[in-house]
Each structure stands twice: as C-alpha cells, then as structure tokens.
Amino acid sequence: MSERYRRGIDIVQRLSAGSLEEFLTSRVAEIAPDFARMAIEFPFGDLYARTELDFRDREIVAIAALATLGNAGRQLRMHVAAALKLGFDKAEVVEILMQSAVYGGFPAALNALADCHDLLAEGDSVACRRA
Amino acid sequence: MSERYRRGIDIVQRLSAGSLEEFLTSRVAEIAPDFARMAIEFPFGDLYARTELDFRDREIVAIAALATLGNAGRQLRMHVAAALKLGFDKAEVVEILMQSAVYGGFPAALNALADCHDLLAEGDSVACRRA
Amino acid sequence: MSERYRRGIDIVQRLSAGSLEEFLTSRVAEIAPDFARMAIEFPFGDLYARTELDFRDREIVAIAALATLGNAGRQLRMHVAAALKLGFDKAEVVEILMQSAVYGGFPAALNALADCHDLLAEGDSVACRRA
Amino acid sequence: MSERYRRGIDIVQRLSAGSLEEFLTSRVAEIAPDFARMAIEFPFGDLYARTELDFRDREIVAIAALATLGNAGRQLRMHVAAALKLGFDKAEVVEILMQSAVYGGFPAALNALADCHDLLAEGDSVACRRA
Amino acid sequence: MSERYRRGIDIVQRLSAGSLEEFLTSRVAEIAPDFARMAIEFPFGDLYARTELDFRDREIVAIAALATLGNAGRQLRMHVAAALKLGFDKAEVVEILMQSAVYGGFPAALNALADCHDLLAEGDSVACRRA
Amino acid sequence: MSERYRRGIDIVQRLSAGSLEEFLTSRVAEIAPDFARMAIEFPFGDLYARTELDFRDREIVAIAALATLGNAGRQLRMHVAAALKLGFDKAEVVEILMQSAVYGGFPAALNALADCHDLLAEGDSVACRRA
User: Do C105 and A103 touch (CB under 8 A)?
Assistant: First the structure.
C-alpha cells in the first residue's frame, strides 16, 4: 500500500460517512481495482492532501465542477454529503448549485439540484436518488 | 411576485400542459424555491417574452440545444411536449433531433430520440420515460 | 460523384456565399478528402435535403446546437452567414444565441456572440474573427 | 435498401451479438426509421467499411470516445460487447476506460466502468446495466 | 436601469479592475446590448448579490466551473483577475485549476493554466492571453 | 524525483520529439510546477507504463478522446506527433479523427483535422497550428 493511497484513504474517511470509500472499493474496484486505487491516490492522496486549499474550499471546487459537468450525479452526491459533513449549511450547497447554472446552463443546475434533493431537503433524508 | 415571474409563468402555462410548471414548483422548488423562480423568470419571463423570435422558433432552439447537450432528457421531454402542443408535427420534432447528430454526435441524438420515444410514437402515449 | 454529394453540394451553394464550400474543399479536404465529402453528403445531402424541415428551421437548429457546444466558432460563423443569406434579421440570430445561454451557459453564449460579432454588427462587416 | 446500408448492417452483425442491431431496429427505429438507417449507413457502412483501420482499432476509438463523452452508457456497452466478441481481453477494455480518465476526467471514467461492470466482471454476466 | 442591473454593475465594479465591465459593455454589448445587460443582472445582480455565499466562495465556484468547461478562457481570466483582486494568493488559484483536472480532465486543466499564465506568474504581468 | 515521474518522463521522451516534455516543463511548469509533474506521473508514469495496452493502442485512445472533446487542440497535436513517431501512417490518424465525428459530432472532428493539418499533410510540415 503506497503512502499516497494511505494518505488518500485517510482523507476520504474523514470527508465521507463511508459512501465514497464504499463506492471506490466495491463495484468499480471489482473490475478495476487499480483504478479504484488511483481514484483515491490522485484526487485525495495527491491533491486534497496539499495545504494550498483547505477541505472546505476543495469541496466547493468539487461541487461546482461536478454540477457543471451535468452527468456526474453519483460523484456530486458524494461530495455534497462530504460538504454537509464538513459543516456546510444546506443553503450554501444549494447556492453553489444555483450559481453553476451561469456557467453550465440551467438544465445541468436543475438536474444537480434534483439529483441531490434528498440530501438537501429539510428534515430527514433517508436516501438520495434521481427524481 | 415580480413582473418577470408573472410574465414567465404565464408563458410556461401557455406552452405546457402543466408538466414544466409542475417540475419547477415541486422537487427543485422544495429545496431551492428561489432557483425555481429564477428558472421561470430568466428563460421565460426575460427571453421567451421577447418578440424577436416567436414561440415556434424558440422551441426549435430549445430542442436543438438540449439534444446536443446529451444529458438533459428531462428538459428535452418538456420542450418536446411544448412543441407538440404548439402544433409541431411529430415528424418535425424527430427531424430536429436527427439533425442534432451532426453537431453533437450520434449517441446524443440516439439518446434524445429514445428519451422522447413515448412522446413521438404514433398513437397515444401516456407516459414518457427513458427506455 | 455520388447523388448524395451532388445534392449536398447544391444545397451548400444555395446556403452560403461560398465560405462553407471553401472550407470543406480546402484545408480539411487537403488531408481528408473523403471526410470533406462526407461532411457534405451526410449533413446536407442526407438531412438538409429532407423536406420535413425547411432551410430556415434547419439553420435555427444548427445555430442553437453550435452555440451550445461552445467550441465550434468556425462552423457557427458559417451557419450565421447562411442564415443571414436566407433572410434572417440580425436581431433574430442574436436572439437565438442569447437563448442558447439558458441551455449551455453564459460563457458559451457570450463567446458565440463575440465569435460572430462582425457578421452581426450593424453596418458593413468585412471580416469575422474571434475578438 | 442502399449498398451503404447493406454493407453497414453486415458489419454490425459481425461485430455484435445482435444487441446493436436490435437497438437500431427497435425503439429508435419505431419513431425515426430513417435515422436508424443512417446510424448504420454512416458509422458502419461508410466508416467501419474503410480499410484504413481494422475493426480492433475502430473499437478502441469508439470506446475511448464514448467513455470520454460521459453520457453515452448505452452505446458504450454495445461497443464493449463488440470489443469482447472481437477478442479483446476484459483487462484491455478496462485499461481503455481507465486511460480515458486522463482526458475526460475521473467521473466520466468511473461511470463508464460502472456502466459496463457486468460486461467486464469475471465469470458470466447475463445483463449489464447501470449500478 | 433596473435595480437588478444597478446591483449587478456595482458588484462587477467591486470585483474587477474594470475588465469584466469593459467586456460586457463593449463587443458583445455592441451587437446584443440586452444580453450584456442580462449577463450582469442574472449572475451578479441576482446571484452574487445573495448573501448565502460570500464573494470569495463565489469566485471559487466560478473558477472551478469555468476551468472544467474547458472552452471559456476569456471568462476564466476575468474571474481569476477578480479572485486576485479579492485577495486570493496566486497559489490558491493555481490549486483550484489543478483540482479541476480531476473532474474535467487534464487537457482542460492544462489549458486553463496556460490561459491564465500571465495572471498567475510571479512578478508583473502586463497582459494575459493564450500561449 | 519520484519513481513514477522518472518512469513517466522516460515514456514521454520515447513518445515525443520533445514537444510534450517541452510543454510540460515550460509554460505550465512555470506557474504550476507540481501539476506539470503530476501530468507526467499519472498519465505516463502510472497508465502508459502499464502493459495491458501497448503504446500504439494508447495513442489511439488519446487521439480519439481528445478529438471528441473538441477543445484540446494543443494536446491533440502532441499525441498525433507521438503517433506518427510511433509509426502510424498519416492515413490511420486521419481515419481516427474521421471516426470521432460519429461520437462527438462533425464540428469537433473538422476542427481536429484542421488543428492537425500541418502534421497530417503530405510533404514536410515544419509547424502545426490552428488555421
């Protein structure tokens, strides 16, 4: 186990309630274990581990980028969950998704909001999936 | 309620059988009511309300753009429904989706056609969802 | 020379003042003559030749799709020139580009407008290139 | 039936176990029969039929391009199935999808891997659909 | 002049040294004055004016989204200039662009860095344009 | 200097006549030296170094993906140069770019061909830049 992986997996665990790690160590890992490892090493072990930006700023980067892409609902939900765990208000996350409409268009932003509805709704949210 | 919103909601109601308004005032509106409002004000209250293009031309713009994006099936179906309500032939809408393959590629166009299958099939179509 | 190519090149000539044909028969044609031929046969010989949509509607499709892509300034300018030749008002073309911001975002629409500035400015426009 | 179509459908049949042809002659064909025909004529009858690249290289092109798009899971699965039928190792296909992360980002590559999980898992895979 | 526009233009002036306003009131404004107005009203007058996110967070959203798009160098440079004026370290902006490679791929991130080279290089940077 | 970097830079040197290394060690490296290093480590040191695909197949992946993106002319030219150095015929590279039109649309493919005109033209080609 590389130092980069160890560092990455540690960050992933601090960020998420386990869902990200779960994903990276299950379905994708089953057919592409080396890529699941790289998907922890490069984004988390290399980038998130750098101190130029704190985790709060990095989650803004991730959420804004993923909402703009418009076809990464799975990853978007993971990072929204991470952001909420880090202490973001739901209203802040909603605002990031709203602003992404300026750059990526309304459909991408509307779909991002719908994708994360259950995570961002008030009250309890048992599960989050596409409307 | 702003004049822009009033103007937008009036256009949305004329264009759709209610499905667009339904979407904009429900799931997204639940977590982002201000964005649901903006998604009526800017596209419909500001742009559709302008007389430089009529609704017919505007629906061609919407359908061509959404088919090219390739990941906005939900919005595409709404605008296809609006176009049919405005009097487009199904064959005209199919043709717009076909031509979008030139600019956005065959997969985007094939998926757009599959996404709107139930709206564009002959005979009645009770519901439209992804194959 | 296939019938599809003959039909396509005839349509291209009616649509453009020559610039599209020029492009398709020069730089790309030099290294990929078969593709230059296909780029006339499929979009124009196959699709534009169909009567389900008239040329006016087809230019709306092309301009909306190309503006949404955000990285096809060259093709966008050709179709804007074709639209103007077909009788579109400059204000109508501007409006199509404006509406594309809803679907593809403001940067794509702003760049589309800047890319076509010289074609859409009042007065004479000798040349059109990126700002 | 055009010569291009005949040539294309012959290639599609050699490449796939039928799933591609099935798709192109069913749901899309129902509402857009001419486009289903074109989707065989141009990609397969025109391009795949050319001898500048063999089918093996063409499937690498298709898989890399579709994984990079990030929203063409349906087409991606068809071409992955075709590649396996042509004799690609599962490990080679996984590697193509992994490398696509460099150009199209990690979310697109992760989703491509998840989309094709059942085709690429060891053992038998009866069906393949999104996780 | 609408209240939204007044509010937006005030924010634009505080954010930029003028370059954004310059752009929005010149080339695009010449052919599409209403769109130049809307491009201030909606992003700045509506969204930036909301207090759910501060300007610092909003610039992270803008830069991450624009770098991910990969074809909005002009807007990216404006927002990088705004971020530096707001007090971001060059190293922080570089880090946002680096992280965007995870979501949008290495080419988009490399081009974003090259596009903003002159703004992010140490020492003085008189002008910034594509390498 | 990490082992991954050493391995990556060695591969880059074998693949290119220096242009890729030049890029990665100059303009981008000036403002983001760590990213220039990562852009060698991950794509080349990690992925290209794996033996599941040979360099020939990997260049097909790179060229197909970059042509589909439509806004990565700089990286596309580097990989086209690498492919030619590896022994690809110009006609093979042209064919990859042609086939990418199926997935990413005609404008992306036409621009890819125009971007690489000088590399793919018969006779000598001293330099290659956008038309």
Answer: yes
